[in-house]
Amino acid sequence: MNTKRVYHRWTEHEVRLLYRSVTSSNRNWVSVQEQFPQFSLLQLQNKFTMIEKQFLVKKEAENDSVLETVRVLMELMRKRE
């Protein structure tokens, strides 16, 4: 069987649409796949998992940044005393 692998670069709009579709349908993958018929169920689930991981990494980075800012401010306040 000769199969051809095709890479699809997801646009920001498609990513948002997929995320919104999955979350609003309470992960009803059948209805999500109806909106994205060009992808298999597994491809959609994998892409959604990647989106969630990226979101968590971004949130962790924001939290680390906030914690670092608080640490620096506390240090400056101690120096002023």
Structural class: mainly alpha
Radius of gyration: 20 Å
Kindly report how far apart the N and C termini lie.
75 Å
- Provide a count of the helices: 3
In total, the number of domains comes to: 1
Beta percentage is under 5%
Main beta sheet: none
Order of helices and strands: HHH
Overall geometry = elongated
Percent helix: over 70%
Q: What's the total number of strands?
A: 0
Low-confidence runs of at least 5 consecutive residues: none
Please, what is the average pLDDT? 86
GO molecular function: DNA binding
Keywords: DNA-binding, Homeobox
Protein name: Homeobox-like domain superfamily
Provide a compact summary of the structure:
The protein is an all-alpha fold. The chain is 74% helix and 0% strand.
Task: Write the topology of this structure.
Elements: H1 12-24, H2 29-35, H3 41-80
Give structural notes.
Helices cover 74% and strands 0% of the residues. The protein has helices at 12-24, 29-35, 41-80. It is elongated and about 65 Å long. The protein has one domain (12-80). It is mainly alpha-helical and 81 residues long. It comes from Hexamita inflata. GO terms for molecular function: DNA binding.
Features:
81 residues; mainly alpha
